[in-house]
Design a protein that fits this description.
By secondary structure, the protein is mainly β. Helix content is 12%, strand content 45%. The N and C termini lie far apart (46 Å).
Length: 105
């Protein structure tokens, strides 16, 4: 007889379980209320992203990302460490459209 214990994670855990697609593209990145900063999109999913930037951006900050094929997208920063920033989009995006627009298809 097999026994299994299924444990559901939090809503955040479920959203972040979607695989990310690796990318390397310069994008527009601007913390709300501040000027745009240089950033490189490193990975993306329909719900989230990771960028590299020299700007110090704290978790909890709201940012705008200018993504090819998706336009200006609002997001919440969830973590920041060592020049990398990860966050969650306010509304889902189509990561494949972004990848095709930067020519990585």
């Amino acid at each position: 007889m097999l026994h299994a214990k299924i444990t559901l994670g939090t809503e955040l855990d479920l959203r972040r379980s979607e695989p990310r697609v690796e990318v390397a593209a310069e994008i527009g990145f601007r913390p709300l209320g501040h000027s745009a900063v240089e950033a490189r999109l490193m990975n993306i999913s329909s719900r989230g992203f990771m960028v590299e930037t020299h700007a110090h951006i704290r978790p909890g900050a709201r940012v705008w990302l200018a993504l090819p094929a998706a336009g200006r997208v609002n997001a919440l920063v969830l973590w920041s460490s060592g020049g990398r920033v990860g966050g969650e989009f306010a509304e889902p995006v189509d990561p494949l459209a972004v990848i095709e627009a930067v020519g990585l298809n």
